[in-house]
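ping. complex inputs:
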Amino acid sequence: MSDISGIWQHASAYGGRNMTIRHTLDPSGSYHTEMVYPMHGGQQNIHHYGTYHANDGKLRLQFDRGETEMVGCTDPANNFPMRPFTQDEIDEAKGLLEQDFGFELSGDTLTTTIQSPMGEMKVAYKRQDD
Amino acid sequence: MIRRWHVGFEVDAETVGDAIDVVEVGDHLCGVVDGAVVETVVAEVLDVGFAAGCRGAGEFVSVVAEGAIGVGQVCVSVIIAHAVCEIVVFGLRPEVFCVGDRSVMALVRAGNDGREHLTLST
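pong. complex structure:
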């Protein structure tokens, strides 16, 4: 198993969204992903928990559960407290995440690759200190 | 409604009085037949942050999840898809389908402008 354990962060401004994704890959094989997604003047926070397996340039996730909350919105009615994913959300997350990703480790950069109908798409993560 | 060859849909805002109520599919999207028409909603509640990245249709990279947008919501799967693939997506419905580059772009500007500023382009 390739050792890609650690904390990896990707900051994206695509589409005008300053999104942050942080993966914590534990050496034990469990992972925790935190996503911060700005919305309505506040942000939606999403957490994923599951396990991962990385070997021979292939990364495979098993998504177990997720939680989400909305905080700090301009209109407080848009806020909601942390709640677990619904079954539909779990099913959709599994469909999106439980597929083969390619990965490449180079110094403090982890690049994941996914084959989409539009071709190869890559996301680069920088290693973060604890 | 102006139609072009291989064009999804386009609306001339000047000819549309209350644009929110007149979204209409003009053609199939690159072979996607019977694509759902987005449920109409009032402009003031649409979150249009994505539009900032759609300055030109050419920047719009081609995978769209289309569906009714609820008040104040963007579904979790859309955000995850964004995270996984850096893809800009709209809407809530789980089916994700491909459209060709420059195929469709929709922008509804929020604000108190009488709901008259709807632009659909290709």
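DSSP finds one helix and nine strands in chain A.
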